[in-house]
Structures
1.
Amino acid sequence: MRLKLAPGLAIKNSTIEGKGCFSVAHCRRGRKIAEYTGEKITNAEANRRASRRRLRICAINNRWSLDGSRGGNGTHYINHSCEPSAYMKILYGRILFIALRDIKPGDEITIDYEQTLHSNKKRCTCGAPSCRGTINKMQR
Ligand SMILES: [Zn+2]
């Protein structure tokens, strides 16, 4: 299946991990970058699929998730960073990416995953000065 990218996005090799999602346009702070798309699955199914090495699943609520590896628009390549350029906002069952700062063409779009289906031991390789060392944010 050919990947249909959301407008304004490009997929390129990332210095963080594997391939990443990059902006090809200017995006002002606070503006929507794109919407996350994918196959709608139950969270039980999401947990079953979590054993895959590359996880492209994003939770909408305590019942549903989207799996961007099927029907994703490029936003499923957005990498984690401890100093992200964007954040995820869930609005009426839709998952939106909003710019945390002004984004220039060529900038990698990153978010702080905070909680994933990955183990809490999974190391972070984002390289940010304030990197916390793991992908998941530990609950205190
Ligand atoms: Zn990090």
2.
Amino acid sequence: MPEVPWIIKYRPKRVAEVVDQDEAKNEFIAWLNKWLVGKPDKKAALLHGPPGCGKTSLVEAAAREYKLELIEMNASDFRRKEDINRIAKVAATKASLFSRGKIILLDEVDGISATADKGALDAILDLINVTRHPIVLTANDPWDPKLKTLRENCKLIGFKRLPKKTVISVLRMICQREGLICEYAALDYIAERAEGDLRSAINDLQAVAATTKKITLDAVKAVVYSRYREYNPFEMLRKLFTSKYIWQAKSILSSSNLDYDMMMQWIAENLPNQYSDPEELWRAYEALARADQYMGRIIKTQSWDLLAYAMDMAAAVAVAQKKPTYKFVKYNFPQKIMLLAKTKEVREVRDALAKIIASHLHISSATAKSEVIPYLKVIFESNPKYAARIALGLNLTESMIKYLAGNRFKEVLNYLKKYRGTGGSTHRRSK
Ligand SMILES: Nc1ncnc2c1ncn2[C@@H]1O[C@H](COP(=O)(O)OP(=O)(O)O)[C@@H](O)[C@H]1O
Ligand SMILES: [Mg+2]
């Protein structure tokens, strides 16, 4: 079995385990209690604050502690008005069958586009009007103009960026529980870089621990790289060209907020400034041209499963010859997957995959999608051998493996055949 991501393993089970957000916790619990006696002042709460500070965790812990059924939807599930009505509205207007109540969580509403997802915001407003159960929304930036009307209909609850010492203390607790030896300086370094984002700090720690049981500053420096959030094109280029590994480059590309076309243009424009050695330059341009070719094909045939290829090619501009000695990558929802998730077939595969993971890890499908699948993708794209073991353990279908592994699909299958010792295809035959 694959190792459970630590952000799942160490996710707070009770409200008391959510660290350092006392004010938000008190406000949230008070609001929830009013709901439970049937007298909410606002029917929805909007939890806002920086990523990885405990917003989703608090809702999940409260649901568990109060024995409330949790109906959880992620931005990718509630972009369409119909989905909101089909899932959330049905849940919001019916009594709960199995428990004494429920919470409806629409996670990361700021992921909704005011233009592309027309109707979604109105559908949420409507949901708040008709609901018979508490609705919780989360957002990083509640002041986004598109959220104005929503905001006015919600109780606002602010979360704070977690202080460095808190991040360090959680990391230290995990080290103890995992039997790791750690240097203070190493944890300090991880925490410093995480900028209050405990999710990324824990992911970094796990990435280091996958290579060594001694968490030293050197080990951390070898694995952890600075985090990429909201890069403007200049930052994106700088990070891209200073990448040592292909996975770093890829991660930068997929976390840039430029669309693919723009990204290619920025890179092409700046290559000659970056590379003076003619051979390097030639190689970089060739990589870019290949990526562009793939992109053309992807758009023409709508075969988004080739996107991993294009990303690979594009990332190759950043690395000359080095082999990817990958361990890890950041954990936010990659744009690449957002793009992939737009086609129906891919969405179905992803949903089926999320169900399997959810039942294995005892988490919701939404969490499987937002937290586990991106992590699995990184593993599948970088370590086919390990990926095959996971595929075997979870009994994944070929299309699921393809979805996760992208262009390394064949390699994973080969290992899988070896492990099975049959040469046959996967067991699960449906999706
Ligand atoms: N305040 C917190 N207390 C305990 N764990 C936290 C806290 N904030 C974040 N974490 C850890 O980071 C992970 C991500 O937190 P999450 O609540 O999903 O963040 P977000 O604020 O982005 O919703 C959790 O699984 C948990 O392990
Ligand atoms: Mg969250």
